[in-house]
Protein backbone atom coordinates (compact mmCIF):
# COMPACT_ATOMS: atom_id res chain seq x y z
CA UNK A 1 0.00 0.00 0.00
CA UNK A 2 1.45 3.37 -0.90
CA UNK A 3 1.59 6.03 1.75
CA UNK A 4 -0.38 9.18 1.26
CA UNK A 5 2.12 11.50 2.92
CA UNK A 6 5.85 12.05 2.96
CA UNK A 7 7.43 10.88 6.19
CA UNK A 8 10.05 12.48 8.37
CA UNK A 9 12.10 11.51 11.39
CA UNK A 10 13.45 13.33 14.39
CA UNK A 11 16.55 12.45 16.36
CA UNK A 12 17.23 13.59 19.90
CA UNK A 13 20.29 13.06 22.07
CA UNK A 14 20.78 13.58 25.78
CA UNK A 15 23.65 12.78 28.11
CA UNK A 16 22.17 11.27 31.25
CA UNK A 17 24.33 11.23 34.40
CA UNK A 18 23.78 7.55 35.28
CA UNK A 19 24.92 4.16 33.89
CA UNK A 20 23.01 2.67 30.91
CA UNK A 21 21.22 -0.01 32.96
CA UNK A 22 19.77 2.58 35.32
CA UNK A 23 18.74 4.87 32.47
CA UNK A 24 17.21 1.97 30.54
CA UNK A 25 15.19 0.90 33.58
CA UNK A 26 14.16 4.50 34.19
CA UNK A 27 12.85 4.81 30.65
CA UNK A 28 10.51 1.86 31.16
CA UNK A 29 9.42 2.78 34.69
CA UNK A 30 6.16 4.78 34.65
CA UNK A 31 7.06 6.32 38.00
CA UNK A 32 10.09 8.15 36.57
CA UNK A 33 9.35 11.65 35.23
CA UNK A 34 10.15 12.36 31.60
CA UNK A 35 9.38 9.03 29.97
CA UNK A 36 6.14 8.93 27.97
CA UNK A 37 4.46 6.43 30.30
CA UNK A 38 4.82 8.74 33.28
CA UNK A 39 2.38 11.28 31.88
CA UNK A 40 -0.39 8.75 31.18
CA UNK A 41 -3.88 9.12 32.64
CA UNK A 42 -4.43 5.47 31.76
CA UNK A 43 -1.57 3.05 31.05
CA UNK A 44 -1.14 -0.56 29.95
CA UNK A 45 2.54 -1.41 29.43
CA UNK A 46 4.07 -4.76 28.57
CA UNK A 47 7.70 -4.07 27.61
CA UNK A 48 8.77 -7.33 25.98
CA UNK A 49 9.11 -8.27 22.31
CA UNK A 50 5.59 -8.30 20.82
CA UNK A 51 4.22 -6.82 24.03
CA UNK A 52 1.80 -3.92 23.60
CA UNK A 53 1.33 -0.57 25.26
CA UNK A 54 -1.63 1.71 25.48
CA UNK A 55 -1.55 5.06 27.11
CA UNK A 56 -4.00 7.87 27.14
CA UNK A 57 -3.33 11.44 28.09
CA UNK A 58 -5.93 14.23 27.90
CA UNK A 59 -8.25 11.95 25.89
CA UNK A 60 -5.53 11.24 23.31
CA UNK A 61 -4.84 7.51 22.92
CA UNK A 62 -1.43 6.09 21.96
CA UNK A 63 -0.80 2.48 20.97
CA UNK A 64 2.29 0.49 20.10
CA UNK A 65 4.08 -2.84 19.99
CA UNK A 66 7.57 -3.49 21.30
CA UNK A 67 9.79 -4.88 18.54
CA UNK A 68 13.17 -4.87 20.31
CA UNK A 69 13.95 -5.05 24.00
CA UNK A 70 17.67 -5.42 24.74
CA UNK A 71 18.66 -4.33 28.21
CA UNK A 72 20.62 -2.10 28.69
CA UNK A 73 21.26 -0.95 25.13
CA UNK A 74 18.14 -0.67 23.01
CA UNK A 75 14.36 -0.36 23.02
CA UNK A 76 12.26 -0.17 19.87
CA UNK A 77 8.51 0.02 19.51
CA UNK A 78 5.89 1.16 17.09
CA UNK A 79 3.86 4.25 17.93
CA UNK A 80 0.41 5.22 16.76
CA UNK A 81 -1.71 8.15 17.84
CA UNK A 82 -4.02 10.71 16.21
CA UNK A 83 -0.83 12.71 15.56
CA UNK A 84 0.58 9.96 13.31
CA UNK A 85 -2.61 10.11 11.20
CA UNK A 86 -3.16 6.38 11.44
CA UNK A 87 0.37 5.57 10.24
CA UNK A 88 2.58 3.27 12.29
CA UNK A 89 5.61 5.32 13.30
CA UNK A 90 8.68 3.86 14.98
CA UNK A 91 10.51 4.91 18.15
CA UNK A 92 14.05 3.61 18.71
CA UNK A 93 15.87 4.43 21.93
CA UNK A 94 19.52 3.48 22.45
CA UNK A 95 21.69 3.80 25.56
CA UNK A 96 25.46 3.97 25.14
CA UNK A 97 27.96 4.10 27.97
CA UNK A 98 29.91 7.33 27.93
CA UNK A 99 32.32 7.34 30.86
CA UNK A 100 30.13 7.44 33.95
CA UNK A 101 27.19 8.73 31.92
CA UNK A 102 24.89 7.41 29.22
CA UNK A 103 24.41 8.85 25.79
CA UNK A 104 20.73 8.36 25.16
CA UNK A 105 19.52 8.67 21.57
CA UNK A 106 15.87 8.68 20.59
CA UNK A 107 14.82 8.46 16.95
CA UNK A 108 11.17 8.85 16.05
CA UNK A 109 10.81 7.86 12.40
CA UNK A 110 8.09 7.34 9.81
CA UNK A 111 6.14 10.35 11.02
CA UNK A 112 3.78 12.02 8.54
CA UNK A 113 5.09 15.37 7.32
CA UNK A 114 1.87 17.32 7.52
CA UNK A 115 1.16 20.98 6.75
CA UNK A 116 1.32 21.84 10.39
CA UNK A 117 4.32 19.59 10.69
CA UNK A 118 7.98 20.10 10.64
CA UNK A 119 9.34 23.49 11.38
CA UNK A 120 12.28 24.35 9.19
CA UNK A 121 14.09 27.11 7.42
CA UNK A 122 13.28 30.53 8.74
CA UNK A 123 10.86 29.73 11.52
CA UNK A 124 12.52 26.89 13.40
CA UNK A 125 16.09 28.06 12.99
CA UNK A 126 15.05 31.49 14.06
CA UNK A 127 13.53 30.22 17.26
CA UNK A 128 16.35 27.88 18.13
CA UNK A 129 19.31 30.03 17.36
CA UNK A 130 18.83 33.56 16.22
CA UNK A 131 16.02 34.90 18.32
CA UNK A 132 17.53 34.35 21.79
CA UNK A 133 20.83 35.82 20.59
CA UNK A 134 19.11 38.88 19.26
CA UNK A 135 17.65 39.57 22.67
CA UNK A 136 20.92 38.94 24.48
CA UNK A 137 22.97 41.15 22.20
CA UNK A 138 20.43 43.89 21.70
CA UNK A 139 20.14 46.01 18.61
CA UNK A 140 23.01 48.41 19.10
CA UNK A 141 25.44 48.73 16.26
CA UNK A 142 23.54 46.45 13.90
CA UNK A 143 23.47 47.92 10.42
CA UNK A 144 20.12 48.05 8.67
CA UNK A 145 19.57 46.68 5.20
CA UNK A 146 16.93 47.45 2.64
CA UNK A 147 13.65 45.58 3.19
CA UNK A 148 13.12 42.41 1.17
CA UNK B 1 -1.29 36.02 3.10
CA UNK B 2 -2.02 34.27 6.41
CA UNK B 3 -0.58 35.56 9.64
CA UNK B 4 2.03 32.80 9.95
CA UNK B 5 3.46 33.77 6.55
CA UNK B 6 3.41 37.42 7.54
CA UNK B 7 5.24 36.66 10.78
CA UNK B 8 7.84 34.46 9.10
CA UNK B 9 8.42 37.13 6.46
CA UNK B 10 8.75 39.76 9.15
CA UNK B 11 11.29 37.86 11.23
CA UNK B 12 13.29 36.61 8.26
CA UNK B 13 15.18 39.88 7.86
CA UNK B 14 18.07 40.71 10.22
CA UNK B 15 17.16 44.38 10.39
CA UNK B 16 13.61 43.62 11.41
CA UNK B 17 14.87 41.22 14.06
CA UNK B 18 17.12 43.99 15.31
CA UNK B 19 14.10 46.29 15.53
CA UNK B 20 12.18 43.62 17.46
CA UNK B 21 15.13 43.19 19.80
CA UNK B 22 15.24 46.92 20.38
CA UNK B 23 11.51 47.22 21.00
CA UNK B 24 11.55 44.20 23.31
CA UNK B 25 13.34 46.49 25.78
CA UNK B 26 10.37 48.86 25.73
CA UNK B 27 8.34 51.15 23.46
CA UNK B 28 10.22 53.72 21.41
CA UNK B 29 9.54 56.65 19.09
CA UNK B 30 10.14 56.22 15.36
CA UNK B 31 13.35 58.27 15.39
CA UNK B 32 14.69 56.23 18.33
CA UNK B 33 13.98 53.02 16.42
CA UNK B 34 15.78 54.38 13.36
CA UNK B 35 18.74 55.83 15.31
CA UNK B 36 20.99 52.73 15.54
CA UNK B 37 20.72 52.16 11.81
CA UNK B 38 22.78 53.89 9.20
CA UNK B 39 20.22 54.13 6.44
CA UNK B 40 17.35 56.16 4.98
CA UNK B 41 14.32 56.62 7.21
CA UNK B 42 12.24 55.35 4.32
CA UNK B 43 13.83 51.89 4.67
CA UNK B 44 13.01 51.83 8.39
CA UNK B 45 9.42 52.82 7.60
CA UNK B 46 9.11 49.86 5.22
CA UNK B 47 10.49 47.48 7.84
CA UNK B 48 8.03 48.81 10.41
CA UNK B 49 5.13 48.36 7.99
CA UNK B 50 6.00 44.68 7.54
CA UNK B 51 6.31 44.20 11.31
CA UNK B 52 2.96 45.94 11.80
CA UNK B 53 1.29 43.80 9.16
CA UNK B 54 2.49 40.70 11.04
CA UNK B 55 1.06 42.11 14.26
CA UNK B 56 4.50 42.20 15.85
CA UNK B 57 4.39 45.90 16.64
CA UNK B 58 1.72 48.44 17.39
CA UNK B 59 1.66 52.19 17.37
CA UNK B 60 0.09 54.20 20.13
CA UNK B 61 -0.44 57.94 20.20
CA UNK B 62 0.56 59.52 23.48
CA UNK B 63 0.01 63.26 23.40
CA UNK B 64 2.04 64.58 20.49
CA UNK B 65 4.19 61.46 20.26
CA UNK B 66 3.62 58.11 18.59
CA UNK B 67 5.16 55.21 20.48
CA UNK B 68 5.95 51.92 18.79
CA UNK B 69 5.85 48.78 20.93
CA UNK B 70 6.57 45.10 20.43
CA UNK B 71 3.82 42.46 20.62
CA UNK B 72 5.04 38.90 21.15
CA UNK B 73 1.79 36.94 20.67
CA UNK B 74 2.10 36.30 16.91
CA UNK B 75 5.40 34.51 17.60
CA UNK B 76 3.42 31.81 19.42
CA UNK B 77 1.99 30.79 16.09
CA UNK B 78 5.52 30.18 14.83
CA UNK B 79 6.26 28.06 17.90
CA UNK B 80 3.09 26.06 17.20
CA UNK B 81 4.32 25.40 13.68
CA UNK B 82 7.09 23.20 14.99
CA UNK B 83 6.20 19.52 14.69
CA UNK B 84 4.17 18.06 17.53
CA UNK B 85 6.69 15.29 18.20
CA UNK B 86 9.70 17.58 18.06
CA UNK B 87 8.24 19.51 20.97
CA UNK B 88 6.89 16.43 22.71
CA UNK B 89 10.19 14.49 22.88
CA UNK B 90 12.27 17.53 23.74
CA UNK B 91 10.06 18.26 26.73
CA UNK B 92 9.98 14.60 27.84
CA UNK B 93 13.74 14.10 27.48
CA UNK B 94 14.57 17.34 29.27
CA UNK B 95 12.42 16.19 32.17
CA UNK B 96 13.99 12.71 32.14
CA UNK B 97 17.51 14.15 32.11
CA UNK B 98 16.64 16.55 34.93
CA UNK B 99 15.35 13.66 37.04
CA UNK B 100 18.74 11.92 36.84
CA UNK B 101 20.64 15.16 37.45
CA UNK B 102 18.60 15.79 40.61
CA UNK B 103 19.12 12.18 41.67
CA UNK B 104 22.88 12.48 41.22
CA UNK B 105 22.95 15.73 43.19
CA UNK B 106 20.97 14.12 46.00
CA UNK B 107 23.33 11.12 46.06
CA UNK B 108 26.32 13.46 46.25
CA UNK B 109 24.80 15.32 49.19
CA UNK B 110 24.03 12.07 51.04
CA UNK B 111 27.63 10.87 50.53
CA UNK B 112 29.02 14.09 51.96
CA UNK B 113 26.83 13.88 55.09
Q: What does this protein structure show overall?
A:
The complex is a heterodimer of chains A (148) and B (113). Chain A is of the alpha+beta class. Chain A has two helices and seven strands; from the N terminus they run βαββββββα. Chain A has helices at residues 20-28, 121-137; strands at residues 7-16, 42-45, 52-57, 60-70, 74-79, 89-98, 101-112. Chain A has a seven-stranded antiparallel sheet with strand order 1-7-6-5-4-3-2. The relative contact order of chain A is 0.19. With 113 residues, chain B is an alpha+beta fold. Chain B contains six helices and three strands. A three-stranded antiparallel sheet of chain B has the order 1-3-2. The longest helix of chain B is centred in the last third of the chain and has 29 residues, at 84-112. The N and C termini of chain B lie far apart (63 Å). The mean pLDDT of chain B is 87. The chains are: A alpha+beta (148), B alpha+beta (113). At the A-B interface, strand 1, helix 1, strand 7 and helix 2 of A face helix 2, helix 4, helix 5 and helix 6 of B.
Describe the structure concisely for a colleague.
The complex is a heterodimer of chains A (148) and B (113). Chain A has 148 residues and is α+β, with helices and mostly antiparallel strands.
Secondary structure: elements and pairs:
The complex is a heterodimer of chains A (148) and B (113).
Chain A: E1 7-16, H1 20-28, E2 42-45, E3 52-57, E4 60-70, E5 74-79, E6 89-98, E7 101-112, H2 121-137
Antiparallel strand pairs in A: 1-7, 2-3, 3-4, 4-5, 5-6, 6-7
Chain B: H1 3-11, H2 14-23, E1 28-29, H3 30-34, H4 41-53, E2 57-62, E3 65-70, H5 73-81, H6 84-112
Antiparallel strand pairs in B: 1-3, 2-3
Helix pairs in contact in B: 1-4, 1-5
Amino acid sequence: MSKSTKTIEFKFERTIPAPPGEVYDGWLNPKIPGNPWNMADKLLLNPKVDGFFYWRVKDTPHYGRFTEIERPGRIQHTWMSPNTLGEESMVTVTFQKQGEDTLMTLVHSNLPDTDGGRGHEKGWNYFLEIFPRQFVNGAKGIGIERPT
Amino acid sequence: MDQLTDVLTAISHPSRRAIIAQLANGPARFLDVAKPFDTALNAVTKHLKLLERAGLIEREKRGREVLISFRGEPLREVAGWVHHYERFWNVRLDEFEQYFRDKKKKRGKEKRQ
